[in-house]
């Protein structure tokens, strides 16, 4: 089992940047495919990005391609989401998720979730 704790959310102006982090417990972090999801007010949770075990493969939803970058540091048990050129429509609670095993381009079901971190983009 893995526990996930997100951090780094906040308020930023449109066009700005923010990096959010997700720290995982345990000694098997490198065995988990990691992902970011988000949920805006009144909307369903949606997939944002995923990264495979070593970080070799990444995948993004179309709306964030070219603006967001997912990365991971297995030595620190941490996955990151660098968000650039932020838009008001990126406002949401961002959730980190984990799935044990190698799942490239997986936008589906994940097994473990963090509590979320709020990202608010003002216009």
Task: List the defining traits of the structure above.
123 residues, four-stranded antiparallel beta sheet, seven-stranded mixed beta sheet
Summarize the structure in words.
The chain has 123 residues and is mainly β. The chain is built from no helices and eleven strands. The strands form two sheets. Strands 2, 4, 5, 6, 9, 10 and 11 form a seven-stranded mixed β-sheet that branches. A four-stranded antiparallel β-sheet has the order 1-3-8-7, with no helix packed on it.
Provide a quick synopsis of the model.
This protein is 0% helix and 50% strand. The chain is mainly β and 123 residues long.
Which regions are unreliable across 5 or more consecutive residues at pLDDT < 50?
none
Mean pLDDT: 96
Helix content: under 10%
Q: DSSP helix count?
A: 0
Strand percent estimate: over 45%
Cα Rg? 13 Å
Biggest sheet record: 7 strands, mixed
Structural class: mainly beta
Write the topology of this structure.
Layout: E1 4-7, E2 10-13, E3 18-24, E4 32-39, E5 46-51, E6 58-60, E7 68-73, E8 78-83, E9 92-100, E10 112-113, E11 117-122
Parallel strand pairs: 2-11
Antiparallel strand pairs: 1-3, 3-8, 4-5, 4-9, 5-6, 7-8, 9-10, 9-11
């Amino acid at each position: 089992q893995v526990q996930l704790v997100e951090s780094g959310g906040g308020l930023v102006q449109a066009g700005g940047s923010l990096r959010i982090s997700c720290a995982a417990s345990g000694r098997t972090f490198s065995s988990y495919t990691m992902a970011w999801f988000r949920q805006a007010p009144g909307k369903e949770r949606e997939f944002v990005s995923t990264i495979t075990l070593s970080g070799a493969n990444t995948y993004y939803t179309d709306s964030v391609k070219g603006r967001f970058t997912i990365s991971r540091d297995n030595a620190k048990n941490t996955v990151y989401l660098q968000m650039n050129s932020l838009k008001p429509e990126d406002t949401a609670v961002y959730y980190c998720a984990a799935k044990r095993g190698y799942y490239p381009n997986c936008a589906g079901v994940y097994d473990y979730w963090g509590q979320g971190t709020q990202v608010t983009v003002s216009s």
